[in-house]
Amino acid sequence: MIRSTTRFIGVPARPALLVAGLCLASLAFSPAQASAQATPTPAARGTLAGVVSNLGTANLLQGARVEIVALGRFVFTDNTGRFSLPDIPTGTHEVTASYIGLEPLKFVVAMTAGPPVRRDFELTSPVYKLGEFKVTGEREGNAASLTRQRNSPNVRNVVALDAFGNLPNDSAGELLVRLPGVAGRLDDEGNVTGVIIRGAPPNLNTVSVDGNLQASAGGLGRDFRTNAISGALFEELEVIKAPTPDMPADSLGGAVNLKTRSALAIKERRRLDYRASARWAPDFYNPTPTRAEHPLHPLLNLGYQEVFSVGGGARNLGVSLTAFYSENAAGFFQTLQDYQFAVPAPAYVWDYRTTDTYNNRSQASVQFRADYRLAEHTRFFIGAIYNDAFERFNRTFTTRAFTARTVAALDAAGQPTGTGAILPGWTDQVTRVRGVAASTVQLNSTLFSFLNRERQINGGAVHKLAAWEIDYDAFLSLARPNLANGQRDGTPGGGIFTLDAPGIGWTLDKTASAAFPKFTQTGGAPLTDIGSYRNGIITVRDSDRDTVIYGAKANARYTLPFTLPTRLKLGGLYRDQRVDERARDRRWNYTGAQSLAPLVDPKIVTITERRSGLDLPFIDSAVARQDIINNPARWTEDLYYAGSRLYQGTRGVTEQLTSAFVQGDTRLIGGRLGLLAGVRWEKTDVATDGFVPARVLSTTAQRAADPFGSAVRDQNNRRSTAGAYDDFFPGAHATYRIAPGLQGRLSWSNSIGRVPLSNLLPLETVSDAAQTITINNPALKPQDAENWDVALEYYFEPVGQISVGYFRKNIADFIVTSRGGTVGTGPGNGYNGDYAGYAITTQFNGGSAVVDGWEFNYQQQLSFLPALLKNTSFFANYTALTTAGDYGDTGPRSTAEVAQFIPETGNAGLTWKYRAVGLRALVNYTGAYLQDYSADASRLRYRVDRTVWNFGATWDFRRYASFFIDVQNAFDEPIEFYRAVPGRLERYTDNGTTLVFGVTGRF
Question: What values do phi and psi take at 622, rounded to 5?
């Protein structure tokens, strides 16, 4: 067992503790309180309480500022629009309520001692009074987001779910990539499956719901699949880029938090929202043949909120229920080309593939939340999410032509000799391949399914008692994906079916198009004849990867009895995360004497066949799987493979987090300067278990005689490991209101990106020749980030913002591999007495880097424009990143040499509305970046920059019916990669263009 020691992030432990202590002390004792004397509370004082709402939309407003300017006292409303200002002197006072996008409202209030004096505020704006302007939730959603960003003590971006109109798939990831500093990780279907925040990949960031970590379908990889849960279940999303001490520290780039709706935030009694739409892939955009057979798929969403009066109370129970169903069908065509391992041009192609895919990602979700206000200062809540994200039929058909990377020799007559595969004379456009034994054309037919079940429940309470505010909750989150083969209605499903035709000569000509080259067979048996293929192998997967996260947290905040508003907060969190994987994969070889011709499915048509004119003999893997059942004598199962997978694919990791924090905050200079500082402590315990191969494996003869038994003897060697580490995370944040609407920010925070759980599993790779053993290290520490943020923000009416920010991340403790000691002797050496004297190679933390970034953000309602243009709004953001450092491998590397580090991202959008008609244009830009790093320059793989345009139109028939149509990826922008040098196209993926149309409304 390898165990780590305590560290302090950013600075040595003792000085850092001193710094944190001084920060807290400075909050508690400002210059105005240097005498350390608390101001006595006069007897004649009272409390002002009430709610702030939007008169136009009937929403109760979170984050509205209620202020008594003459006293320098203010408070922000909570998530149900309520506020409470205690300790106000009796007498008359002018009280102001303000909120971005709405006109401030002032009242003179006569304060008395005793029960709270109630004063409610109904804010509005001329825009809500214009008869020709149809009010939508978009304006208020943007105002709410800006309000929370402005009031936040740290750096964060907040966005409402309706901020950019209707999302094509209602995926949270589709919305997140519109924020500054956030880029999407795309799959081949074009879905945003994860978010890259400030250069940090998805597995180094976290996704939570109402502050509680979400279990991920990614299992041991940690990355949360943002396309697996609907954004329709939530009210807004936030990305926290500079964590405060009361937040978990495990997000290197940023933490994503999805916030559910509280029905107590509506002013009316009941509200119903709905959306009914369809996603259509029209023929005139040339979808793949399989996608063209299934062009139309539904998306439905229904939201219900109601407030009840129970137990003698008034409007004290709020219930929210959201139901969602969608079929996010996608089809794509892909070409892939791999080249000679050489940088100078020209380079031949030795591997060429084309793929047609159709996948229907269905999702059925229900979200429930109830809030019960027991008394004015006590609220209980409970929430649950039921989410099934199923890919029942992921069909892929691949044609692959590949050969050896050898060049044919020519005799004196110029004729090729020997076994060399590539004919001389190749160019960047044309490669000719001989029909030697190594030259193979392979057909793959795949039917997979991915059935992900996610469940979450949490519950807790909030108590506000005089100077104290206490909150606590417990949570449970589950993700249970099953990786299967499309079984349905009693059928066995499919798998991967592979056919190989050896000795095929071919020519690849890219003269007309690099993305759609011309493939011509020049030698060997005809590819259209099933008899030309020499084998048939089907691999059937059946595996689970389950994640269970549970825990509890509690916080207490105390308002100190000082003249200046000063609060002290402390709390703790316990979280247990368990990930288990189990595999039951199997494999069969076709050994029958009969032809496979009866299994060929003539209905399978691919774009490759259409372009080449070849009618290839694809076999549906579901048909092959059924034939194994009907005609078992024609198939031989690889029992050694099945037995090995039972052990190789069975493993698990438990990670337990225990943490505590203390922080304080205050406001100085008449409330213009806000300070928050504190320190967090986290301790992590890790335990892993799995199987490693035996030192001496079975022989070929033993496997032939007893394949399954040989697998058990070879693989049934269980290993368990354990490790631990603990850290302190100090932080300090300051905001200063320079002028009305203008404020500056300065933040210093510390965070980590945890190691992928797969890196902690038992691993033993032995080289007897080199006398070495390579193992995993369960005590690997996370990557550390010391974060500095400085920003200038200007907020203006109506609903506008301009901000520019600079940040720096000093990152340390990258994972590197090096020697780590020698195996001892005796049966207790950790390896059952084996490998005595072998050198141990394992992973350690080392290397460092610096990331610098600039973020620009602008949005505005352009109401100053004349006539028809005054109902126009515009937004734009841009992020530029650079990095340099020693990443622990081959020496210093910079921005262009760091894999999956995206240096540029940007967004822009224009919305225009007149009366009942609205138009929208959105554009998303992702700059070019290195996808895969290699010390061999010819193996470097880059992604080409990509710009995607979406357009939309709406017609508001009534409040309860607004019709819309959206065009997604209007210009059919592909996803492209190149190898080593620009122009050497490695991969081209065409996702196509889709239209989403439907109706949405509110009752």
Answer: -65, -35
CA–CA gap between residue 181 and residue 902 (Å, rounded): 10
CB atoms within 10 A of CB 797: 15
Tokens (6 digits) for 544? 């689970």
User: Interhelix angle for 639-648 vs 707-715, to 10°?
Assistant: 20
Domains defined for the chain, CATH in brackets = 38-129 (2.60.40.1120), 137-259 (2.170.130.10)
Burial class (CB in 10 A: 0-12, 13-18, 19+), 792: middle
pLDDT per residue over 860-883, tens digit each? 888 888 878 888 899 999 999 999
**Which segments of the chain have a pLDDT < 50?**
1-20, 22-42, 129-136
309: DSSP letter? -
State how far the Cα of 368 lies from the Cα of 383, in Å rounded to an integer. 6
As a whole number of angstroms, the distance between CA 841 and CA 818 comes to 6
The answer to whether 540 and 626 are in contact (CB under 8 A) is no
- Please name every residue paired with 886 in a beta bridge, in sequence order, or none if there are none: 848, 892
Using CA atoms in the order 486, 488, 493, 495, what is the torsion angle rounded to 10 degrees? Answer: 0
Output DSSP code: residue 312: T
d(CA 460, CA 853) in angstroms, rounded, equals: 38
Which 8-state DSSP code applies to residue 974?
P
Average pLDDT of the chain is 88
Closest to 538 in 3D by CA, of 602, 620, 616, 603: 620
Cα–Cα distance for residue pair 63/76, rounded to 1 Å: 5
**Residue tagged 């300090």 (tokens):** 732
E strands along 823-916, which residues?
839-861, 872-886, 892-894, 904-914
**Segment 513-546, tens digit of pLDDT:** 999 999 999 999 999 999 999 889 999 999 999 9
| Both tokens assigned to 686 | 């890790």
Burial class, 731, CB count within 10 angstroms (exposed 0-12 / middle 13-18 / buried 19+): buried
Q: How far apart are CA 724 and CA 204, in angstroms?
A: 19
Burial of 93 (0-12, 13-18, 19+ CB in 10 A): buried
Quote the tokens at residue 842.
């394992």
Asked whether the beta carbons of 811 and 853 are under 8 A apart, the reply is no
- Give buried/exposed letters for 414-445 (b at 16+ CB in 10 A, else e): eebeeebbbbeebebebbbbbbbebbbbbbbb
DSSP state, 741? T
With beta carbons less than 8 A apart as the criterion, state whether 332 and 359 touch. no
Phi, psi dihedral angles at 642 (to 5 degrees): -60, -45
Coil, strand or helix at 28:
helix
* Number of other residues whose CB lies within 10 A of the CB of residue 162: 20
Query: What DSSP string runs through 569-587?
Result: EEEEEEEEEEEEEEE--EE
